[in-house]
Amino acid sequence: MEYEDIIFTKEQGVATIRFNRPQAMNAFSPRMMEEIFHAIEDVREDEASRVLVLTGTGRAFSTGADVKAMAEGNLLRTGTPDGAVRHNYALTLRNLDKPVIAAINGYAVGGGLDLSLACDIRIASVKARLAEVFIRRGLIPAMGGIYFLPRLVGLDKACELIWTGDMVDAEEALKIGLVTKVVPHDELDDATLELAEKLAKGPPLAIQAAKRAIYEGLTMTLEETFVATAEIMDRLHKTEDHREGALAFVEKREPQFKGR
Q: Rounded CA gap, 183 and 170, in Å?
């Protein structure tokens, strides 16, 4: 696919999807949505891509759905099944067995915020501004916000943010657990890349298994978690990556994990 509304790059194990409609505050056009899904599937199938980063160009991460396209009834006219397209981002990213980092460079509102919430880690610029603005359109968060927000900030704060649509700045977002860390605006790309490359150098099989175990564990009892993690550990003990990690420790060197 030839990308027009995103910039999709891969380098040293890190794949980056950069939303590229700055003139529209990176609102999701039908074309952009299709391109994002296509790029995520590319990352899923590419063993060399071990980490995915989502970010935006200009003043916004994303302001969500293109209201003009919504008003014209065009938003869902993509190659993705119409009835689920706006819900699939959360499922697609959660089911991606690789770490996903949102580098929030500016405004992340509505569907743009929900998309960031579906990522595993959120690094925000001090210029970031976040809001669940669905209520102002007579709607509710429909791209995962209803699910993710209470789990990140607690029930009462989630209710406040969803019911009011109020904007929070980066420092407030950090305080309430909406983002993982806040960095100076001109250091956002470097800080994100530093973490992404660190994860990309890690043992991919163990990281992927840990991601699945973390999220599946949210719906398990403690006993069920022990059983599940024991099964995972049994598999990981048989991998080349585990042997490499142990050998590197003994030899006092950095391990070279290959995902086998």
A: 9
Domain 6-200, CATH 3.30.750.24 — does that match? no
Residue 185 sits at φ, ψ, to 5 deg, of: -55, -45
Question: What is the model's pTM?
Answer: 0.90
Q: What is the largest CA-CA distance in the chain?
A: 63
Thinking of the domain 204-250, which architecture would CATH place it in?
Answer: Orthogonal Bundle (1.10)
Which tokens is 168 given?
A: 């929070």
For residue 76, the SS3 value is: coil
Same fold, 6-200 and 204-250: no
The domain spans of the chain are 6-200, 204-250
Which helix (H) or strand (E) segment holds residue 38: the answer is: helix 30-45
pLDDT, one tens digit per residue, over 76-99 is 444 444 444 444 788 899 889 999
